Amino acid sequence: xCAACLRxxxxxxxxxxxxxxxxxxxxxxxxxxxxxxxxxxxxxxxxAFTMCEACQQEYQxxxxxxxxAQPLACPMCGPGVWLENAAAEKxxxxxxxxxxxxxxxxxxxxxxxxxxxxxxxxxxxxxSNEAAVKRLRQRKQxxxxxxxxxxxxxxxxxxYVHLTLNANALLHSAAAPIVVLKSRHxxxxxxxxxxxxxxxxxxxxxxxxxHLLLESWNTPLVMTSGNRSxxxxxxxxxxxxxxxxxxxxxxxxxxxxxxNRLDDSVVQFMDDQAxxxxxxxxxxxxxxxxxxxxxxxxxxxxxxxELKNTFCLIADGKAIYSHHQGDLEDASVYYSxxxxxxxxxxxxxxxxALIAIDQHPDYLSSKLGWQISQQKNIPLFNVQxxxxxxxxxxxxxxxxxxxxxxxxxALDGLGYGAEGxxxxxxxxxxxxxxxxxxxxLQPVALPGGARAMKxxxxxxxxxxxxxxxxxxxxxxxxxLEFFQSLEEKPVETLVQMLxxxxxxxxxxxxxxxxxxxxxxxxxxxxxISYEGQAAILLEQCAESAWxxxxxxxxxxxxxxxxxxxxxxxNSFWAALLNDLNNEKTIALxxxxxxxxxxxxxxxxxxxxxxxxxxCCVALTGGVLQNRLVASxxxxxxxxxxxxxxxxxxxxxNDGGIALGQAMIALAHYSN
Length: 671
Ligand code: ZN
Ligand code: ZN
Ligand code: FE
Description:
This protein is of the alpha/beta class. The chain is 34% helix and 18% strand. Residues 2, 4-5, 23-24, 26-27 line the site of one zinc ion.
């Protein structure tokens, strides 16, 4: 909402005084209300509202700030807002009270209110009311993942987080994303908002409705997406009444239909520069110019990955990157993803001549791509997961098609590698067309397969067993808390599985290394409740000891059979256990681990530089959202004169891979 609209909204003499849908050509909804193009009112959900005479005049007057503002509306002719209880009964208003003020009053009493916003529903409650926040966690079945907050203004935000000038500017930008920043001591904030976290995600009110709602709040509101855990955010009143019925006490609804679901965008700061973690409301879909060499690109559809999915169209020489879709394994997300693809193809009059997918045969996105390719008889191109991560980074930096290769360091949870191997810690010499793997983290078994992704202790046992033999190490350090914490776990069975190679596929995953280290240090050792939890907490734990930390030893060996360098962690684990035994602090050990990883990765770069020509190093994959690793590595490499590319505008996680898939497929097919 622009400043001029806010002024009018607060002016009792204005005809849009306190109107929650005030907008003009400089502000207001767009993508969330579009059904088709051209972007005319008739093609939006504002079609349902006939403009009154006063609005019509503004719409037709070229001198007016609202000339051809498609969502133009006023209290006389536009959408309205009302409040319901969980039984879908409208709450009657008394005197001059309005529904938004009443909702705000109920929030102050501890109620959970589902609020229909711009691109979907939020669930809101008073962030300083411990009982309310806990109730929301319980009802939403979201035990630990931090909740985002909304605060009335930047000044209030600065009571809760360390706000730099750059972060403040982004917080106040028109895109108004959730900005994740280091938290300050704020005892009034409920601990259940972000358990065990040193960071908070904050946003400012971004629609007139939110401005009105926050009007009397000098403390934050929890504003978490309006869904059950894992499912998509509700967008229609009926969906919300059904899905959120046993979560929300009240529903603040309106009758401007949301056509396209748009989650809040999320951004963090690293070395005081923004790094986008999730792109949706305010930033997508925005076309990205293709780099030199891709002038004759055919229309293409890239279907993305499985988690944090996004997809991408290539149309008219541009990459059109979709908003965040979510984790496709949830049926509601998958359904919404298919609808979004259909809508994009309509909006952009797009008919793909080429389909790009991930090589993983079980990703739902890959299966869908395969189906579309069969049905429409369009060629299909399989793209290796980590090559896609690297190519997305090349696109972000506008690297030309025929540029010299870069050394990509792709660190993530898991991706499908050559011959069905599980990769996640790879050094790949790559351009858009070619990729050659030169080094990796030494693979470690994932005992129990998918369960190892959720239970960090399994990775710890596998890592220690590989380095030393489990029985030996467990008897050597019987007093360590980690070994004691496993008393009730089927460790013997696990070790047998590892020895006999049963359901324990090897993976060169950086994500699992973080899980293993976190578990040994007693961080989330039993189970994680959201993706990346152990790694995120390990990073935060390391921060306080960073300045005193030192790398542990590590080895780099050359694997002749595979023609690959491998980073081996045996001496690292020995040093870590020794420090733990000598009662060094968990924070220091965690920081030492981060420094070890940075040092090991930099050493491999050194080694490869003597044998291969690359112009720069591209750091990508979800692990490079770890501030200590990414900024540590940038520092070391820059000091050695190596230039570094790090995804900042596009997510480094799997949210970025659709772009990389598109670029690699284009490089193979077009000329
Ligand atoms: Zn405006
Ligand atoms: Zn009107
Ligand atoms: Fe990945």
